[in-house]
Design a protein that fits this description.
With about 375 residues, the protein is of the alpha/beta class. It is about 65% helix and about 10% strand. It folds into 2 domains: about 230 residues, no CATH class; about 120 residues, abc type-2 transporter like fold (3-Layer(aba) Sandwich). The protein has 16 helices and 5 strands. The longest helix has 30 residues.
Length: about 375
């Protein structure tokens, strides 16, 4: 691979982006504008979830309560934990959304006709569903405690609720970080349109006749859009933090690293798909079909990921970026706990780039 030829491609792409105001706007400013628009639209609240139990009582009454809750199809049992920190750790890792803590003496208090308490923990980083889920759990506990009610004890079980990471269950705190995944699709759309336009204008064939090799061409296409994508991500993150007041509990440097992986995955897939497309309208439809539409409904952005659709959901880069952004913004997580998502984004970027290089050689070499 020639550094000189690679630099020539890079310089050409940078000039093309800077001279074309539409492309420049799409890859830099439009993600921040899209984020603002979507954040106001998708701040509603919604539904089913995984729940773990920390049963410190282990009495027949506590077992009956856990069994009764597990019968609800909207509360998916995720087992029990042995310690309180384990419950928080499971929630921080995203493996559960609700936690139920049953204190010692729970069964004895009920049997003696005394009021008792349980604690419910909710993951406020997913504000769309948490309020509904916690209300559902409270209602089920209240229904279960009906036989223990009396005139002297109208509420046998008192519920103490605590929402982690988003105490006020603000919809925007949950949705704005997640919507970054949608806004950052625009650089991928731009590169797809740029490639298709080269073919429509005939400049691609002229370039193919030069000594430029496949890796030089692909890297020369990827790098400029990744640079401008990082700039647009910075603007969008500034909108999230400064305009919508979403707390940033993680590190900005970590978030930018994850953003680079996301950009590589989405840009790589866009370039690969666009290499088989010859006009801009088809390229636009392909990107919308691959990224935009599925990202709203299959990535956990609005509704939880369906178990039956998990394989499809995990094949979408936005699924991992939604989880990463919520975890970095609201939970303060870094590379260790989010390594699985980062690895899959890296794999998508590498695989799509390699496939693009190979398919390029077949047609041009």
């Amino acid at each position: 691979m020639s550094i000189r030829r690679l630099w020539a491609i890079l310089r050409k792409e940078f000039r093309h982006i800077l001279r074309d105001r539409r492309i420049l706007f799409m890859v830099t400013v439009s993600p921040a504008i899209m984020l603002m628009a979507f954040a106001y639209v998708f701040s509603f609240d919604l539904n089913p979830t995984r729940m773990a139990v920390f049963d410190q009582d282990r009495s027949p009454h506590s077992r009956q309560l856990v069994l009764a809750l597990s019968q609800d199809r909207n509360l998916i049992p995720a087992g029990e934990v042995a310690r309180y920190p384990d419950l928080r750790r499971e929630m921080q890792a995203g493996r559960i959304k609700l936690g139920l803590v049953i204190p010692p003496g729970f069964g004895a208090d009920l049997a003696a006709g005394r009021q008792t308490q349980v604690q419910v923990l909710g993951d406020g980083s997913d504000a769309i569903n948490t309020s509904t889920q916690m209300a559902l759990l409270a209602r089920r506990i209240d229904e279960w405690s009906q036989p223990f009610r009396s005139r002297a004890l109208p509420q046998p079980v008192e519920l103490q609720a605590e929402t982690l990471y988003n105490p006020d269950i603000k919809g925007r705190w949950s949705m704005v970080p997640a919507l970054l995944a949608i806004a950052m699709i625009l650089p991928s759309m731009s590169v797809a349109l740029a490639l298709a336009r080269e073919k429509e204008l005939g400049s691609f064939e002229s370039l193919a006749a030069t000594p430029v090799q496949a890796p030089e061409y692909i890297l020369g296409k990827l790098a400029p859009y990744m640079v401008f994508g990082v700039i647009s991500a910075g603007l969008a993150i500034a909108v999230a933090v400064l305009w919508f007041r979403v707390p940033m509990r993680g590190r900005y440097l970590d978030l930018m690293g994850f953003t680079l992986l996301y950009l590589w995955a989405t840009l790589g897939i866009s370039i690969f798909v666009s290499s088989f497309i010859t006009n801009q309208s088809t390229a636009l439809r392909a990107v919308l079909l691959l990224f935009l539409v599925p990202s709203f409904f299959l990535t956990g952005l609005i509704i939880p990921i369906d178990e039956q659709a998990r394989l499809v959901a995990y094949s979408l880069p936005a699924t991992h970026y939604v989880a990463i952004n919520r975890a970095v913004f609201l939970k303060g997580l870094s590379w260790g706990p989010l390594g699985f998502h980062a690895f899959l984004l890296l794999a998508m970027g590498l695989l799509s780039t390699v496939l693009t290089v190979l398919s390029f050689r077949k047609r041009v070499g």
